[in-house]
Design brief:
The strands form 2 sheets. This protein has a 6-stranded mixed sheet, sandwiched between helices. It has 2 domains: about 170 residues, D-Maltodextrin-Binding Protein, domain 2 (3-Layer(aba) Sandwich), CATH 3.40.190.10; about 110 residues, 3-Layer(aba) Sandwich (D-Maltodextrin-Binding Protein, domain 2). Helices cover about 40% and strands about 20% of the residues. The protein is of the alpha/beta class and about 290 residues long.
Length: about 290
């Protein structure tokens, strides 16, 4: 991505041109002048605003309706906006999706390396001795990404709990960075001795920004979990949900969509069942029963 800004400019031009003649889906019956609002948190791109503008134009062409991306710093902020009806859909973590499952519904799930799965990674500075597990980080400083992150908070807490350790007393000092990339940055500069990060984000940084990722190393990987999904409120109309699903699924079917997916290091979007996220629900239940679910 050394020329990411130029790439984004070309994507914006192509997406805008495609929007002029697109007739991919029936027009949505949204109130006049009201855009479809999609929530997101910070990702790993240097030029995130440029990418989101290109993605917005592409989705507008597919939906034949205005689209607006609404960015917030935390999963809680995005989740609350979605539950309050301010957003039509959002790219959330599986943890808040399961936690508020009675009020949310799946739209699509991103596919990474050909499957809707990802892992939690524990990373440490590249020049530090590699601990065998999270249990070896006792009394060390540790960074989490977000209190509603599965890979960046729930998974490491459950691993410690399952190992007979109190997750509230294990580390010497903890902090939240509010993004997975910032976990990598905190570990890379030695601000903390380790951190929990979305494996997809770390792998993408290693591919696109090796100068940053190579200052860290992966010391431990979790089992696989359902990839952070795109979800909508259960109050969303079936027409809107179906149109959004078709728009995201259609991205892998043309050159413009595939180029945007490549920017995200994704294979595409797929449909999925709720059982994909059952392991997250079981972890929540285990921690809740012990009074350790935050």
């Amino acid at each position: 991505m050394n020329s990411s800004r130029d790439q984004h400019r070309r994507l914006i031009i192509r997406a805008g041109a495609g929007a002029l003649g697109a007739s991919l889906l029936p027009a949505l019956a949204q109130p006049a002048g009201k855009a479809i609002r999609i929530g997101t948190t910070p990702v790993f791109l240097d030029d995130q605003l440029g990418f989101l503008e290109a993605w917005k134009l592409d989705l507008q062409a597919r939906l034949q309706y205005p689209v607006t991306f609404v960015q917030r710093k935390s999963y809680r902020e995005v989740t609350e906006l979605l539950l309050d009806g301010v957003l039509d859909c959002a790219w959330l973590c599986g943890y808040p999706y399961v936690r508020f499952h009675d009020r949310l519904q799946l739209v699509v799930v991103p596919s990474f390396n050909g499957a809707p799965l990802y892992q939690s990674y524990m990373i440490v500075p590249a020049d530090a001795p590699a601990p065998a597990s999270l249990l070896d980080m006792r009394d060390r400083s540790f960074a989490f990404s977000d209190p509603l992150s599965n890979s960046g908070f729930l998974v490491p807490r459950h691993v410690l709990f399952a190992g007979g350790v109190d997750p509230d007393r294990h580390f010497g000092r903890t902090l939240f960075t509010w993004s997975h990339r910032k976990v990598v940055e905190a570990v890379a500069i030695g601000l903390v001795a380790g951190g929990a990060v979305d494996g997809y984000v770390w792998e993408t940084l290693a591919k696109e920004y090796p100068a940053l990722a190579e200052k860290t190393r992966v010391a431990w990987k979790s089992r696989t979990f359902g990839f952070p999904p795109i979800v909508a409120s259960r109050k969303a109309s079936p027409e809107l949900t179906q149109s959004l699903r078709a728009a995201f699924l259609g991205m892998a079917g043309d050159a413009q969509g595939r180029q945007l997916l490549a920017q995200l290091n994704l294979s595409g979007f797929v449909t999925a069942k709720d059982r994909l996220f059952e392991p997250i629900e079981r972890m929540m239940q285990d921690l809740a029963s012990a009074g350790k679910l935050q």
